[in-house]
C-alpha cells in the first residue's frame, strides 16, 4: 500500500515535470535584460532597481492587424519580445485578425497550451490528437466563445463568417513559439529531400515540387 502510494507520488511528480510549461519564477519578477551577455533558460534579469511600469506594459492591441496576405490573417504578439516583464512568468497573449475566410494554417506551439476567446465574428477551430488516433476535435465558435488547444497539438482557425473576425489567445509560455506545418514541411531552408516528402505524403515528386515552389 505504502509502496503504491509512493509510486503514485513519483509518477505524479514525473508527469508534472514532463507536461509543465515554463518553469515557475523564484522571485517577484525578472524583467528581461536583452543587453545581458549571460545565457540562461529564458533571459537574464534586469536590475530590479531599474524596473519601471513600462517593462510590464504594451499598447496597441485594440488595432486590427494587416490581413492582406495569402492566409488572410494577422498575429499581433504580446510575448517576451514585446513585454520584457513577462520573463519567467510563463504566460503571453496574442491578438489574431482574420479576413473573411482567412485562416491560421495548421500549427503547433512547442511550449504552450492556448486558450482562445472570440471577440468578433465566427471561427471554425480544431486540433488533432497525436498518433495513433489522429482524431479531429473541432467546433464553430461565435463571439464570446472560448476554446482550448492543448500544448504541442496541431491546430487551426478559419473565419467562416462574411465579415472580419478577431480573437485573443492566452498562452502558457512567455515564448510559446510557433511551428507552421506547411512552412516547416514544404518551406524549410534547404528543402527536405523531395523523395522523403513524396513518400511521406504518398504523392509524385512533381506534386512536392509544385507545393515547395509556393514557399
Ligand atoms: C498590408 O499589407 C499589404 C501586403 O504586404 C501592403 O501592401 C499594405 O500596404 C498593408 N496595408 C497597411 C495598411 O499597412
TrEMBL record:
It is found in: Secreted, Extracellular space, Apoplast. Oxalate binds at residues 109, 114. Its main location: secreted. Disulfide bonds join 30-45. InterPro entries: Cupin_1 (IPR006045), Germin (IPR001929), Germin_Mn-BS (IPR019780), RmlC-like_jellyroll (IPR014710), RmlC_Cupin_sf (IPR011051). GO terms for molecular function: manganese ion binding. Residues 1-20 form the signal peptide. Pfam families: Cupin_1. GO terms for cellular component: apoplast. Residues 59-209 form the Cupin type-1 domain. Keywords: Apoplast, Disulfide bond, Glycoprotein, Manganese, Metal-binding, Secreted, Signal. SUPFAM superfamilies: RmlC-like cupins. Belongs to the germin family. This is Germin-like protein. It comes from Rhodamnia argentea.
